[in-house]
Amino acid sequence: MTGIVVMAGARSDVGRVRKLNEDAVLAQYPVFLVADGMGGHEAGDLASAAVVDAFRHLVGRDDVQPEEVVTAVESAHTAVSQVAGRHARGAGSTLAALVAVVQNGSHAWLVVNIGDSRVYRLVGSSLEQLTVDHSVVQELVDAGKISRSEMSTYPGRNVITRAVGDSQSPADYWLSPIVTGERMLLCSDGLSNDLSDEAVLAGLSLGGSAEQTAHALVDQALARGGRDNISAVVVDVRSGGLAPRADEVTGGFATSEQAAVQPIEVDTITSRRERPIRG
Which residue, 136, 135, 109, 103, is CA-closest to 121? Predict the structure, then answer.
């Protein structure tokens, strides 16, 4: 099987307001994830660390199956629930993950989401948000009551509707092609709340390495206030993926079928939510 070659960079910062960093990141092939913990001192940080630990055993493998990712999500739920049980205020975490899995004999990204941390994909000049936030403000956007541009300033924007550690919070899963030349971003809401879609697109398009880009995006969020913990993981696919068309600068692929990012069913868990698309 042809191996996927990626370069990744990550940075997590406490921000300018909070005293504790409750975010945690993992950026080791084939697993890339951001977890944003909730619950305060000695709870939120333990919750996000538990999410990372649930996926760590997949690191270094080239044969991960989708079902193993589902099992890791279930393990994360259990571990965070145990953390919550030891603290009066409870605990929880978001999860945004990108895992290279083997599907039908070839590699693909399995995108996983619980909460409002995000996964974006940049191909050429086209930026897509692959995940859909599980949040009150996203529901308002879906209902047409507020615009997407109002999400970062709307009161209660940090209220999420699903969290790791809550047994009633299933993950959403999407299967995305791995495309040579694409750049992926995983981030906590501390970054997406402070940076507009246009700023994210500009930051990802500057041409620096994955490590440099992750640091630059966090610096930009800090410069815009740093109201929350801020985490970014940037993943560049260098080789081994699908070949984009010669006019990839427009975000085109060889066929629309290859380009499609599909909601999938994995062990009866499925998502049919629509993804916002930015071009």
Answer: 109
